[in-house]
Amino acid sequence: MSDSHLYRDQILEVEPTGIETVAEAQRHGAPWHLFGVWFSANAEIATWMVGLAIAAFYGTDLRSAIVGIVLGNVTGFAVLGILATMGPRYGVPQMVAGRLAFGRYGNVAPATLSFLAGVGWFAINTVFGAYALQTIAGWPYPLALAIMLALQIILAVYGYNLIHLFERVSVVLLALGFLALAIVTFGRTHWLAPFDAHAPLSAGGPLAAFIMAGALAFSYALGWVPAASDYSRYLPRKTDPRAIWWYSFLGCALSCIVLEIMGAAAVSAERGIDLTTALPTQAVSVLLGAGWVAKLVLLAVVLGTLTANCMNLYSGALAALVAFNVRVKRALAALAVGVIGALLATGGGRPAQMATAYTEFLLLLSYWASPWAGVVLVDLLVRGDAPADPQRVPYWRSGFIAWIAGLAASAPFWNQVWFTGPVARAYPQLGDLSYYVGFTVAAIAMAVLLRFDRVATPSTE
């Protein structure tokens, strides 16, 4: 590609770069762009559903829910901001940068899980967006679903530049749409709403409900961390890392904290519908009626689905290329992953089951992502400015052992419908502490193991 026709100058051109290092000539952009990218990615109905789940499923009182939401988001997105600084430093996607801590072979398992998470988010969000589009336009669900899938796949296939532009121009429209929902919701909110002992998953009591509020918010935040550097890797190498951190952190935290509080508040604002089984579009209709304000909010739901899902699909495709080490162009990988997600999304015709599956999926994410984040964070902080090339690493590094240690340590604290660990079973009032245990144990194990890390046989690929 000649200097007169660089991808960095193009919008409507399919991104040629995959998981290889971004060339210096292709570096472009400014750190403030990251605010729009991350704000729009999280200004979506699935974020609102996190807050709703905290109050409707676990019965958390609203004041405790707000504190837990703030703490969980601040902690999780602080980690995302740090890992986003790896983008301009190494010029590779986050799952490639993870090889520095895990090694080439050790990195396969986390990359595979990241791919599966991207596909799962893509399918779940598409269902919500398709229902919103169906409500607005009155189209059959299959048609609304097909339109949502096509738009998202097109954005992911074109890649980095179009996604960046789309996310930035969507900020204002998303803010207006959800502002309308916030005004109505907060105007009806019962701010002193107490703990609901009759909620479906409230058996652990008020303390467990508070812990779950922070855990769900933390889980949602860490769900984005394995893609942190995917959207900063084209930035010039000398971009100020502090600016990267602040814009990434604020874009994520602002949208998530506000929308999750709105979701929790909606449980006390609207008592005429069972929010544990209702679709988000049904809740919006009950709150706002059928006028133009409701349609504006539903349009924001549709747009938010696009902004989140093009990134889920884009990062999922990059993770698939890393995990399976296939020599396929990134655009084709995005198309293939989109087809897989589309097949999963066709199961969205049963809203009650989807709501329950969504909650369980949120919890499942951080069981692997939390210790993974602890490993990569410690490896980055210890390594500092030491030169490293994620494309040329040993087959195995100590991060894999630290990650397994974090997963193993967290297992007794798991508190899932399909599995409850012995600690969680014995002390239900503690909720689910596995996220924090896994992150902490993996981080400590990595710090210790780095002292004894030895350079293994380097990869020849």
Reading off the top of the CATH hierarchy, the class is best stated as Mainly Alpha
Please state the CA-atom Rg, rounded to the nearest Å.
21 Å
From the helix content, strand content and strand pairing, which structural class follows?
mainly alpha
Supply the CATH architecture: Orthogonal Bundle
| Largest sheet descriptor | none
Number of strands: 0
Beta-strand residue fraction: under 5%
CATH superfamily: Hydantoin permease
Q: What is the subunit organization of this protein?
A: single chain
Poorly predicted residue ranges: 455-461
Write down the secondary-structure element order.
Answer: HHHHHHHHHHHHHHHHHH
Rough outline: globular
- How many separate structural domains? 1
User: What is the CATH topology descriptor?
Assistant: Hydantoin permease
**What is the percent of helical residues?**
55-70%
Number of helices: 18
Mean pLDDT: 88
Ends distance: 24 Å
